[in-house]
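Side project, low priority. Logging it here so it doesn't get lost.
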Amino acid sequence: MNRKLLLNPEVEEIARAFFKSIEGEGRSFEDGWGKFLAEELGEIRQNEKRKNEEIEYLALSMQEAVPNKKVLPSNKNLRSNTKNIVNKLKTFKNGWKDKRYTPEVILAATKMYGEEVTNHPERWFSPLNFFIIKDNASTLAEYCDKFLAGEEAFDQATYKSNVI
């Protein structure tokens, strides 16, 4: 079967030369191209699966880093549900491309948040999914920056202004 590939003529020429160099007995350009694409697609899927597993593991670790309690004023569980956290983390990773926000930094920032929740139960705190990102703003990014700068999470001036 002779299929016309919709490639730039120069790219097609390079691709044909490449596949001609690796063609086996009785194999055509299209067979080689199909195998090449299938291998690339398989690798992309494998990488995507690995990334999803890493994000899910990070989400579970973040849930463990904060107390399992209800938060004021919403009376929602602080830990949120794993699926929501995974989705928020994906959005966070796409929106905040700061290379310093590694999974380790994110988890350390979450632990800072969890310690603050434990030490100051009278304050209002967001559930974990809103901590990560809400309305294109991220408290997680602020905590990551604080962690990277070596600052403490609790700020007395902020506390006084935000408590009713």
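Brief comment: The CA atoms of residues 114 and 133 lie 16 Å apart.
Revisit when time allows.
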